[in-house]
Amino acid sequence: MSKQDYTNTSVQEPPLDYSFRSIHVIQDLISEKPRTGLRPLRHSKSGKSLTQSLWLKNNVLNDLKDFKHVVSQLLEHPENLAWIDLSFNDLTSIDPVLTTFFNLSILYLHGNSIQRLGEVNKLAVLPRLRSLTLHGNPIEEEKGYSEVTKADRTTAEVWKRMNIKPKKVRIKQNTL
């Protein structure tokens, strides 16, 4: 399977789901069995998962030591990791290792113990990050933190319509 084929098919793959496993350290993922969903996980010939999603929600992680190393043992293409769910753990900061996954588009960090709003700045280097959750962290109490309101969404939509030109549609000529 070419890298292009992998990218197209793995988006539909179910997540590698280690939620609710009482995991204390990332290394435990190697010996822990992931949860099974409605659809079975597909694996490469080497036995690694072909997914782009890793769910670690509702555990007791307080750091991401060895995260990249462990992920490379679990996923056939760790560089294509697009969704990481670390919600409801005990993380106090945003580990810089998360910024090494350049295809990351969804990052759930809600319900942790992140205290400094400045931690979020680390994620600015992720070009595809589209969804970030931080609610339920102590940073909510910091000045400058706010949720996106309905008015903010409306303003963003108006700005988008005014500033982003639509793609030109080419009409194919019938060749008879």
From TrEMBL:
SUPFAM superfamilies: L domain-like (SSF52058)
InterPro entries xref list: Leu-rich_rpt, LRR_dom_sf
Protein name: Leucine-rich repeat-containing protein 51
PROSITE patterns associated with the record: LRR
Keywords in alphabetical order: Cytoplasm, Leucine-rich repeat, Repeat
The keyword Metal-binding is assigned to this record: no
Keyword presence, RNA-binding: no
